[in-house]
Amino acid sequence: MIEKAKGETAYLPCKFTLSPEDQGPLDIEWLLSPADNQKVDQVIILYSGDKIYDDYYQDLKGRVHFTSNDLKSGDASINVTNLQLSDIGTYQCKVKKAPGVGNKKIQLTVLVKPSGTRCYVDGSEEIGSDFKLKCEPKEGSLPLQYQWQKLSNSQKLPASLLAEMTSPVISVKNATTEYSGTYSCTVTNRVGSDQCLLRLDVVPPSNRAGTIAGAVVGILLALVLIGFIVFCCRKKRREEKYEKEVHHDIREDVPPPKSRTSTARSYIGSNHSSLGSMSPSNMEGYSKTQYNQVPSEDFERTPQSPTLPPAKVAAPNLSRMGAVPVMIPAQSKDGSIV
C-alpha cells in the first residue's frame, strides 16, 4: 500500500528476474482497477515488441512513465505524476517472457493535505459571555488531528480549556480577560498539515441600549427627511400644473380693445393724410359730408355768430402728426369757393 498527497508523484515499484528458460519476447503491462468497482480494469501503459504504448487510458495520459530506460534489465517500475483523487485504485504489474509469467499488485491511496484553514470566534467577545473558538480547514482528507496553542500568556490559560486543545472547537463559558491572547490551530493528516492564527480580545460589555436608541433616532430622522423631500416635490408639481392651466386660459390671438380717443385720432390722421395728398384740381370731389364725419371730441371749432358770414376754417396743426398743413377752402352761400 502506498499513500501520497494530491499533486505529488507516486513511485510504483515492479522488478523481475528472468530465468535461462525464458526465451520468448518480453511483454510488460500495467493495469488499473479503479476504486469504483463498476469500472473495468484499464491498461495504462504497455511495453511490447521493444516499443512503449502509454496512451491507453485517457485519465492518465501524459502522467504515467516507466522509470527505467532499459526494461530488459529487470525494472518495470512506473511513476504516476500530479496525482488526482481519481487515481485511487489497485495497480497491477504483469511481466511475460515465455514460458515465464509474473505479476504484482499495489494499492494506491491519494490523500488531500489540509489547506485553507480558518480560525475565528463564534459569538460576542465580551466579559461574562459565552463563545466558541473554531478551526476549520477548507479541504483535507480524513482523519484530521487538531492542536490548539496559546502563544501569549499561556501560563494564564484556564484549566477548563486544556481539555479541549485537541478539538476543532473550543467552548468558552463566562469569559474573562484571562482568555485574551493569540491562539494557533494546527490541522494534520497523514500527508501534510496547515495552520491558522487567531487574536482574541475579551472586552467589557458595550452599551447596547445606547446603540439601539441611536439607530432608532437615525431611522426616524431619515424618514422625516424623506417625507420632507416628497412634500416639496408634490408642492412643486402642483405649482407647475397651476401655471400651465392659467397659461392655457389666456388667448393670445385676441387684441386688446381700443379706446374712443385712440379711434378718433386714428380716423383724423387717416383723413388728414388724404387731404395732404389732394391738389386744388380734385378738391371739388371732396364732399363736406366726409369732413363732418370726424368725431367732434378731437376737433376744436371756432365759435361763429349766426349772422356773420362763414369764415375760413383753419386746418388743425398737422405738424404734430408728421403731415403737411393744407388750407381747407370754405364755400359761400351761392356755392362758390372762398
From TrEMBL:
The chain crosses the membrane at residues 212-233. SUPFAM superfamilies: Immunoglobulin. Residues 1-109, 114-189 form the Ig-like domain. Pfam families: Ig_3, V-set. It is found in: Basolateral cell membrane; Cell junction, Adherens junction; Cell junction, Tight junction. It is a single-pass type I membrane protein. GO terms for biological process: homotypic cell-cell adhesion. Residues 242-316 are annotated as: Disordered. Residues 259-295 have a biased composition (Polar residues). One of its GO terms (cellular component) is basolateral plasma membrane. CDD domains: Ig, TM_EGFR-like. Residues 242-255 have a biased composition (Basic and acidic residues). Keywords: Cell adhesion, Cell junction, Cell membrane, Disulfide bond, Glycoprotein, Immunoglobulin domain, Lipoprotein, Membrane, Palmitate, Phosphoprotein, Receptor, Repeat, Signal, Tight junction, Transmembrane, Transmembrane helix. One of its GO terms (molecular function) is cell adhesion molecule binding. Component of the epithelial apical junction complex that may function as a homophilic cell adhesion molecule and is essential for tight junction integrity. Also involved in transepithelial migration of leukocytes through adhesive interactions with JAML a transmembrane protein of the plasma membrane of leukocytes. The interaction between both receptors also mediates the activation of gamma-delta T-cells, a subpopulation of T-cells residing in epithelia and involved in tissue homeostasis and repair. This is Coxsackievirus and adenovirus. It comes from Lynx pardinus.
